[in-house]
Amino acid sequence: MARPTPLSGFPEWLPSDRIVEQHILDTVRKTFELHGFAGIETRAVEPLDQLLRKGETSKEVYVLRRLQGEDDAEASVSAADKQGLGLHFDLTVPFARYVLENAGHLAFPFKRYQIQKVWRGERPQDGRFREFVQADIDVVGAGDLPYHFEVEVPLVMAEALAALRGIGVPEVRILVNNRKVAEGFYRGLGIEDVDGVLRIIDKLDKIGGTKVVAALVDEIGATPAQAQACLELAQVSGDDSTVIDRVRELVDAHAITSDLLEQGLVELGALMTAAAVRAPGVVRADLKIARGLDYYTGSVYETVLVGHEDLGSICSGGRYDTLASDGAATYPGVGLSIGISRLVSRLLSARLVRATRSVPSAVVVAVMSEEVRTASDAVAGALRARGIPAEVSPSAAKLGKQIKYADRRGIPFVWFPESTAADGTPVAHQVKDIRSGEQVEADPSVWMPPNSDLWPGVVATS
Amino acid sequence: MARPTPLSGFPEWLPSDRIVEQHILDTVRKTFELHGFAGIETRAVEPLDQLLRKGETSKEVYVLRRLQGEDDAEASVSAADKQGLGLHFDLTVPFARYVLENAGHLAFPFKRYQIQKVWRGERPQDGRFREFVQADIDVVGAGDLPYHFEVEVPLVMAEALAALRGIGVPEVRILVNNRKVAEGFYRGLGIEDVDGVLRIIDKLDKIGGTKVVAALVDEIGATPAQAQACLELAQVSGDDSTVIDRVRELVDAHAITSDLLEQGLVELGALMTAAAVRAPGVVRADLKIARGLDYYTGSVYETVLVGHEDLGSICSGGRYDTLASDGAATYPGVGLSIGISRLVSRLLSARLVRATRSVPSAVVVAVMSEEVRTASDAVAGALRARGIPAEVSPSAAKLGKQIKYADRRGIPFVWFPESTAADGTPVAHQVKDIRSGEQVEADPSVWMPPNSDLWPGVVATS
């Protein structure tokens, strides 16, 4: 077999880089669980008709077929199998299906996190991933869902991302907006094509204000005054609730009255007030945030890594009034999704963080000769019994070679089991810190490495 | 959308059952890491030609195509994409590819664990899973790999499975054999078709000794005496190294001389001796264990859950001399794979274990009125800061309803934030254990739940 080459769009990490990814996954999971979110996993596949309900994603779906497709003619194959299965391209479609399928067994409001791979058949030359890991949280209600969850969910994500600062993950800025504000404002101006305005406003950073105004006039038939007002709203941003006052000034200037807008401003104000207390400096109201997806109905969120804005949003989401509906009940929700692979890929490629070693072991127990390997096994067993990751040297090579085995993997300690010298003198257990060279007598039932050496750490690359 | 129904062969768990699965995943991962195994993940897809190298699995592969297949005509699509991709059906094929692809960046012997989903297009009526989670460990060497890893690997698995006994997972029995013993014995008898004998011996439990002897005579042309000797070997089993003596008696009785057999017996004896010390009562030598796969060259392993032998092996593997080869080097290895989904499915369906609650939260902080929700947020934040999973009540409903919210999810504690009584008297923070009804004053910066209530537990269903 010739040496294989990587598949474009399917990232894989070397062991030390996987330690970085695993640390991030463990950290976000811990934060989600501290906030009471229950973990679920859904199958990787969904029926194609469910995946294709939103036409815009049809290009991205990987469709499955069994290699021995002729089997499908048999009656034993289920209808779902016949109609075709595809790999999920996000965790929202599967979650909506899971909620409907299990509604009778779930307690609402249901707070769940879900950390899984998703697949998109993107064109590889775009530098996009075809397989990547997402970490989603959503709160979904049966029938209704109070607004305060729209405050809570981005703050949970802020906490999860803040918990990563210690390993060198840059600061984040969570940009928030509220669809009700935008929709109320546009309608108050007399514009009916709300989605049209949002689509154009979404391009503001790319094409600039002048072209946005022109597009609003040309494409959706806004008057120049209406278009200018839409631009003014989109240009409002700020880090505290004074941003609400600035929107109100615009509202007054354009003599807009809208209950929807009023409700949106109250909600956005509540979010900014809570964020100032619970995540100061992290959340910014940014009235141009539109999010492409038309199912958002309230708060919308995007998140940039400060200094890495070119990466785009690493954590996005919003409020939707209908996650799912089964005729009997409608399930509104609010959720956010971290693009773990995108984040990890940048942290590694920009050399922002690294693992302190490439394996879990804190200790290599040396083997003095193959005949007494069991003595080394016993030492390693005693260490593990007290929670110290330890492995036994693969061979009874010269001690220098055994130390090199540890050194190549970044394992900080080598243990020399008790032995008998050539002259019959007993030699006690000793442990060597191979970084400092310091070697001391030690008891396998008592010795502990410093806490910082117990497990591989993830640290900022300085 | 009508209520969807489950897809046969694609298991999903409710939140409380997912806690059971997650506990098992965390436990095996912890054991693997304590032994120094490095975690990796590989992509879900492999080029079809790699997946189909072993003809026998061709029926089981799920092949992928992008829905907009016409794109594939473009030059931008890589060769691998054109030749087709399939979902991996195990973690060994991807691991072999990963080793070859990254050989220059890995330190050998390389000890890795890998916990991922795999997919097989099995016929659903067989009651088999089409998507399931495996947890694999392998040690792979560059060029050579000492025998002692064939002792270590099953003992790591024994430890991982023993760590699950506390939650109610039944005892396991790891059945071991050594291909060298079988091959040396058969060849010593004058039989050349070793794979043929193994294939027939593999059916011993199903068809019985008489039919095995008949099949050996009919199908591979053994003499009745040879066939009887093969059966006698297959019937040897035992829990300690005396089993080696019993094989030697057979060897002497049939006047067999074989260096290969001799080497196999030394290896099997070493495994039994080490197992008697490190996992007493768990490992059994069973000379009929054949394992279907022809790439095993030394030790082979199967594992049964005592009392659930009908489930088949939940953890299998063996030694292979050629995991992968790139012309320059050959990589021998030894590995074992736990079928996590099969295990979890049985634990749940047989009601052997259960989670103590359905969500992570240990505490629900009640909300006295929506105006003072921030006071409840502050209490929850103080608890989380000390590692206590806590959530805030979704509504300021009557306290009875808020308690019911906790009760439905099995959350043991409800916290009542400090408040002011109607007559202006301050009322201190209180926390109620809703199981006992006991309610006490408490300080959110000091109070801790009992350790057993901090996180959801997984316990034996008594």
From TrEMBL, chains A, B:
GO cellular component terms, A-Z: cytoplasm
Keyword Transferase assigned: no
The keyword Protein biosynthesis appears for this protein: yes
Residues that hold L-histidine according to the record: 90-92, 120, 134, 138, 291, 295-296
Reactions accelerated catalytically: tRNA(His) + L-histidine + ATP = L-histidyl-tRNA(His) + AMP + diphosphate + H(+)
Main location: cytoplasm
Enzyme Commission number(s): 6.1.1.21
GO molecular function list: ATP binding; histidine-tRNA ligase activity
Any single GO BP term: histidyl-tRNA aminoacylation
PROSITE patterns, A to Z: AA_TRNA_LIGASE_II
Domain called Aminoacyl-transfer RNA synthetases class-II family profile: residue spans: 20-360
Domain of life: Bacteria
Gene3D superfamilies for the chain: Anticodon-binding domain (3.40.50.800), Bira Bifunctional Protein, Domain 2 (3.30.930.10)
Similarity remark: Belongs to the class-II aminoacyl-tRNA synthetase family.
Subunit comment: Homodimer.
Full protein name: Histidine--tRNA ligase
Organism whose genome encodes this protein: Sanguibacter antarcticus
Source taxonomy: Bacteria, Bacillati, Actinomycetota, Actinomycetes, Micrococcales
